[in-house]
Structures are given as structure tokens and as C-alpha cells.
Amino acid sequence: MPVSIEEDERKLWEEAKRRRAEIEKNGMIVADEALTRYLNGVLATLMAEPLSEQAPVPGVHVLRSPQRNAYAAPDGGILVSTGMLAAIQNEAQLAALLGHELGHFIARHGLMRQRFEKLSGSSVERMQLSRDNEAYCDRFALEVMRRAGYDPREIVLLNLQLTEPDDAGWAGGWTVLRSHPFTAERIRALQEPIGHAREDDVRTERERYNEAIAPLLPVAAEVE
Fold it and tell me: For 67, which DSSP code?
């Protein structure tokens, strides 16, 4: 059944495209055709279901930044920082990251957030929505990883690796204002469906990943 695209969503797409063009104009996007082709190839393996004909095609762009960040714009543009790519250990972890961001786009979380903010001025409710969306995208990433044959345990290892040292500082009443679920919470939620079963037919593709990002490492070092 076709998805209805309304005017406010089209405006979100246009704004996302404009902002990305600005970032690129400022030299913040890494121009590496081989790397971009590799990243988008991994993304394509995670997209089992066809998108609406009206929807934009998602794509990956590499941002010059030492911060370990990734972001999915409403139009499907996924920005992944050089710092994040340098921290990731293999292709399965990359698939976990891209699957998570793809989940935001597929579920139209950008549009959902904008419409929600027009209806509710509650920061607590807004943060809870964000936490719920993050949890949804973790589950989505796990599902598409498995479908593509990647080792699902790598999504847990990615979360462990990216644990921020100040996580413990978010305690007591402050936790309700945190937009992303604690890493520990997310790991527990992911470990349950993964279980302890042995995964025989899964892949991590460490060598292929290292080969693909090797030219990027000097760039990542420059922006530290």
C-alpha cells in the first residue's frame, strides 16, 4: 500500500538536503568514491523491503569529525563521522550502526518528532519518545543484521565499545531527561533476543572493513 507523503514531510526532506549541501560546501564531507560505494553497498544489503516510490533513496556520507557520531536525516541521508568509522572494528558493527540509522529513516522518526513537538511542550515526554525510538532502532538493526548474515553479537560489542565514560553520572532523577537509553539498558535489551545460542553461519568481515577504511585513517587522524 503506498505511503502518503504530506507537505510537512516534503519540507523536512528539502531542509535536510539543503543542510547537507551546506556541510559539503564547507568541506566537511569526505570525497572518497570507493569508500562511499562500500558504505552504501553495506547499507543496500540491509534494505530487504522496497521503499515507497515517493520516498528518497537513503545514502551514506562521511563527515570529517573526531566525534564518534552518526545521524539519519529525514530524507535518508546518513552522516557517519570519521571518528566513528575509525572506532568500528568490522563490517558487522558497521551494519549494526547503519541498520540503526536506517531504522530512524524507515520509521520516519524525524517527522514523528516534529509533529509530536507541535502537540506537546513536555520535555519529559519528548525525551521518552526519543528513548523509545532509539530502542526501536536497536531492534530493527538486530533484525536486518541477522537477515543479511552478520553476527548479531557485534551490535552488543559496538554498544560496549562506544560506552561514554560519563554514563554513570546520569543517575537518579536525571535519567528521565536522558534522550538515549543507558548503554547498559540497551545491551540488556539486545542480549535477550540474541541469547546464548552459537552462531555458526554468521560473518563479521573484519578484513574487508579494514581494507575499505584504510585510506580514511589519515583523514581521521588529521581531524583529531
Answer: S
Query: For 48-102, what is each residue's pLDDT tens digit?
Result: 777 777 788 999 999 999 989 999 999 999 999 999 999 999 999 999 999 999 9
Q: What is the CA radius of gyration of the chain?
A: 18
Model confidence pTM above 0.90: no
7-19: pLDDT as tens digits? 888 888 898 899 9
Q: How many whole angstroms separate alpha carbon 107 and alpha carbon 95?
A: 18
Task: Look at residue 89 and give its three-state secondary structure.
Answer: coil
Neighbours of 88 (CB within 10 A): 22
Count CB atoms within 10 A of the CB of residue 160. 11
- The CA-based angle 85-23-35, given to 5 degrees, is 35
Question: How far apart, in whole angstroms, are the C-alpha atoms of residue 66 and residue 56?
Answer: 28
Residue entry with cell 523536512:
12
Give the contacts of 201 (CB within 8 A, at least 6 positions apart): 149
Of the candidates 103, 19, 55, the residue with the CA atom closest to the CA atom of residue 95: 103
